[in-house]
Design a protein that fits this description.
Layout lengths: L1 E5 L6 H12 L2 E4 H14 L7 H10 L2 E5 L5 E5 L2 E2 L7 H11 L2 H14 L5 E5 L2 H5 L5 E6 L2 H14 L6 H17 L12 E4 L5 H15 L1
Parallel strand pairs: 1-6, 1-7, 2-6, 7-8
Antiparallel strand pairs: 3-4, 4-5
Helix pairs in contact: 1-9, 2-4, 3-5, 4-8, 7-8
The chain binds 2'-deoxycytidine-5'-monophosphate.
2'-deoxycytidine-5'-monophosphate (DC) binds next to helix 2, helix 4 and helix 8.
């Protein structure tokens, strides 16, 4: 079974996806982490994000894998190295949307995501899971929140990771990414017609998970 979770940055997708996967005994696939891993590889190789050709070549050569741990956490491997922490750095966040908008990059990543989806029952989160990667997913959710709330959440998250980032930078980064992610030509962020819309602005994590679980149980 596939559970697809899409929505903008900072809406809480990955947190609820992880909890949901653990509760259901499903694998968790963080598709944003895959675009982040490729971005890390490009930056470390000093390839400008505007160099579409070189980045596309890199996407063909890269080896990205996700490993689920029994405690519900996920490790991200880039060419055999664990890059789970590195891919959360602000330098990656700043450029990842520019890389995720490239057509060839998306083709490669979507192929990989479909392969990972064959490993078993999965919860996947991203921007195009219900629309492009798994349009026939059994359950689709679109997780959203007001942008001021998303900024606050992302700021807290970054601070918890030890990043000394200003809230104004988080705000402009989020607005910039939202714009690129939702206006790009190739599979832009949008709600699938058959996705359940969940506004999490005034809900805590447990409440969001509960709404989703109820929905899954009532249709199961
Ligand atoms: O969810 P995240 O912040 O880790 O995602 C990083 C970037 O990757 C985000 O700017 C949009 C992009 N992304 C995408 O285009 N498609 C996906 N399925 C997942 C993420």
């Amino acid at each position: 079974m596939i559970i697809a979770i899409d929505g903008p940055a900072g809406a809480g997708k990955s947190t609820v996806a992880k909890i949901l996967a653990k509760k259901l005994g499903f694998l968790y696939i963080d598709t944003g982490a895959m675009y982040r891993a490729l971005t890390l590889k490009a930056l470390d190789a000093n390839i400008p994000v505007s160099d579409c050709e070189k980045i596309s070549l890199l996407a063909d050569q890269v080896n990205i894998d996700l490993r689920n741990n029994p405690d519900g956490t996920l490790n991200v491997f880039l060419d055999g190295f664990d890059v789970s922490s590195e891919i959360r750095q602000p330098r990656i966040t700043r450029f990842v949307s520019d890389i995720a908008k490239l057509k060839h990059v998306r083709q490669v990543m979507v192929g990989l995501q479909r392969q990972l989806g064959k490993r078993g029952n999965c919860v996947l989160d991203g921007r195009d899971i219900g629309t492009v990667v798994f349009p026939a997913a059994e359950f689709k959710f679109y997780i959203d929140a007001q942008s001021s709330e998303r900024v606050k959440r992302r700021f807290k998250e970054m601070r918890a990771l030890g990043e000394q980032i200003a809230i104004t930078d988080v705000k402009s980064d989020l607005a910039n990414r939202d714009k690129i992610d939702s206006t790009r030509e190739c599979s832009p962020l949008k709600q699938a017609e058959d996705a359940v819309y969940v506004d999490t602005t005034n809900l805590n994590i447990e409440e969001v998970v509960e709404v989703m679980l109820q929905r899954i149980k009532s249709n199961g």
